[in-house]
Structures are given as C-alpha cells and as structure tokens.
From TrEMBL:
This is Methylated-DNA--protein-cysteine methyltransferase. It comes from Litorilituus lipolyticus. GO terms for biological process: DNA alkylation repair; methylation. Gene3D superfamilies: Methylated DNA-protein cysteine methyltransferase domain, Winged helix-like DNA-binding domain superfamily/Winged helix DNA-binding domain. Belongs to the MGMT family. This enzyme catalyzes only one turnover and therefore is not strictly catalytic. According to one definition, an enzyme is a biocatalyst that acts repeatedly and over many reaction cycles. SUPFAM superfamilies: Methylated DNA-protein cysteine methyltransferase domain, Methylated DNA-protein cysteine methyltransferase, C-terminal domain. One of its GO terms (molecular function) is methylated-DNA-[protein]-cysteine S-methyltransferase activity. CDD domains: ATase. One of its GO terms (cellular component) is cytoplasm.
C-alpha cells in the first residue's frame, strides 16, 4: 500500500492507494504513518489541492475502494452527483431501483472510504436538513459552502479550527 498526506483547509488528509487505485481519503487529524508514494497518491494530492483552490470540480483518479457490491453501487452514485449539487438518500435509493432502501443507502454513504472525491458530503436528508458526515458536520458545511450549496451557517468558522485536528470517525475499519 502507498500513503501520502495533504494539508487542507479542513485539516490533514490521508490518501492511501493500491497499485490499482485510491483506497481511501480521510481526515486523519494528526495521525500519520510513514509516507510511501506512488503515482495515484500523487495524483490524489494534486487534484485535491486543485479542488480546495477552486480550480477543479471533477476528479479523474482510478478508485479501488473496498466494500460490498451494494456499497460500491452507492459510491458510484455519489461520484455521479455534480459539483455544487446535492441529493437525498432517497434519490440514490431510487437510482438503484431500491426506493425503500434510503437507510441502507445512508449506511453505505457513512462507510464511504474516499471522502471528497466520492462526494458523500453532497447527500442530505429528505427534509432538506444536513445529516451526518464521518468527517464531522462542520467539515460537511465547509465543503457544501465551498461548492456554493446554501446549507451553511456562518458561525462555524471558529469551531472548525478545533475540528481540523481530529480524525474522521468511522475509519477504524480502513486498512
């Protein structure tokens, strides 16, 4: 496995890849391992830096996410959500021809190992409210605001300075 890190406005990001593609992109707090890069981790860092500097709205990195067939189907739907747009868990369930699977979609969304590039932050609840995000709700608000989506509170900036030092939740299963 190959691993590298990127400093971002939302804290340190860990990019891990196999020879085939990107395995995970997570907010890692201050947890760092030894760096061992390949062309995929380099490409991920470059494209994420471009995203954060508003020079990129789509990613073109080979992916190698590990999950169930259902999770992979959900994650593919996430990749298809355009920059600056949002959808609901129910919308994704309908795309998968499983209209009653909103909660299962939410579970798969929460296990997405490739933050930002597989944009699970663009999914909201059916009521229009923001719902959970493994990277933390403040990061989700920041990402949505960065993309011009209007679900943002201005007072989160000070709190964000505390969040950027924390490791993303639900990432202990990643190897």
């Amino acid at each position: 496995m190959f691993i590298d890190y990127l400093e971002s406005p939302l804290g340190l990001i860990e990019c891990k890849a196999s020879e085939k593609g990107l395995r995970h992109v997570i907010f890692c707090g201050n947890d760092k391992q030894a760096i061992k890069t390949n062309h995929i981790t380099g490409l991920a860092k470059q494209q994420l830096a471009e995203y954060f500097s508003s020079k990129r709205t789509q990613f073109s990195i080979p992916l190698d996410a590990q999950g169930t067939d259902f999770q992979k189907a959900v994650w593919q739907c996430l990749v298809d959500i355009p920059f600056g747009e949002k959808c609901t868990y129910g919308d994704i369930a309908k795309l998968l021809n499983k209209p009653k699977a909103s909660q299962a979609v939410g579970g798969a969304n929460g296990r997405n190992p490739i933050s930002i590039i597989v944009p699970c932050h663009r999914v909201i609840g059916s009521s229009g409210k923001l719902t959970g995000y493994a990277g933390g709700m403040l990061r989700k608000q920041w990402l949505l605001a960065h993309e011009g989506i209007d679900h943002v509170k201005e007072e989160y900036t000070e709190l964000l300075t505390q969040v950027v030092k924390t490791r993303q939740s639900k990432t202990n299963f990643l190897t």
